[in-house]
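An example makes the point: we print one protein in full, the chain in one-letter code, the fold tokenised, without further comment:
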Amino acid sequence: MRFLFVHQNFPGQYRHLAGSLVPEHEVMALGEAANLRRQSAIAGVRRVGYTLTDADKGAAPWRPLRPLDAALRRGAVVARAAERLKAQGFVPEAICVHPGWGEAIFLCDVWPDAKTIGYFEFFYQPSGSDVGFDPEISRADFDTTMRVRARNAHLLLGMAACDRGVAPTRWQHRQLPEIFRDRCDVIHDGIDCRIARPDPAATIVLKRQGLRLTRADEVITYVARNLEPYRGFHVFMRALPALLARRPRAHVVIVGGEEVSYSPKPPGARTWKEKLLAEVGGKLDFSRIHFLGSLPYVDYLRVLQVSAAHVYLSYPFVLSWSCLEAMAVGCPMVGSRTPPVEEVIEHGEQGLLVDFFSQSELLEAIDRQLDERDAARAMGERARQRVLERFELHDVCLPQQQALVLGVNAAAARG
């Protein structure tokens, strides 16, 4: 079969699936050229880049229309790139595409006979989800409701252009409009538990402080792609003065960039880290707080492997890979009592759950994980077992993904 993977930041969620189809199948990837240059190639996968001009990046004057306007412009650029591939003789039988940026909208018009499988990551709701969850960051007023409804317009167009879909978790599946749920499977991207695994001998060395930390130390970890409110960074930072006061031997290791992925930019500061340090920095002992920025994957896993308490807070939003990777490593988890996290962690079984906004609950849970090491270790073992059973890449998720993409065309032929 011929497969086309379309993702503006390829490989994105398709890293494992695309590579697994080689060499039995011909695999092509279409992504934004600037992003492709920053990503490592996958052996056997031919990559083709498209480029957005300044005209393609134009924005509609009315704010609620801007996501749709940008998505339609990007979709048109992708369609023209697809037309060029078609003229060169490339005709895929299956297309895997993330509709989040508009790339899926017109592909069915270029290759009407191809079966298209969308990655339905998230569908925005004006209530009961991320919007309005945190009053400090966003308001749930009618203007917001209209903006959220409009924000979904390109997602609806993309979903309508797909024959089937994939959602990574059951909660994310429930966010979809009911009319799309029946043709959307719940299959996670997969966690490679052969790599993300416990290592009792792991150490991290913080050269600037001349510090070596192991699993025997009180290491509290926090990880996010970017340090921002959607992942509870503001809640965590505000709890640190009290945390350091009650845990005089603890070290806090924070991993993540300083941009924003999902949250609005902070008022009056360049980054949320800058804003929160201006708020609580005078109360902190920086010899025991370590900001490591973004790390190579191996170094990031080593941080998790020495963790005695890993804090994962999230709005009702997309579940982070880092949550499942921390569980796969066997971290004693402290998570927020929000639906995405509750799907994978049961309180007292795979970790401890706390109210997202409660600093007191957060501190008490961290104390419990640090004070009751045997119980914490047992929860970490159960957390890894949960990932092995539901989210393991090689034995669970990748076979399901392969069955879907290889079977969708066979099912159409039988029909």
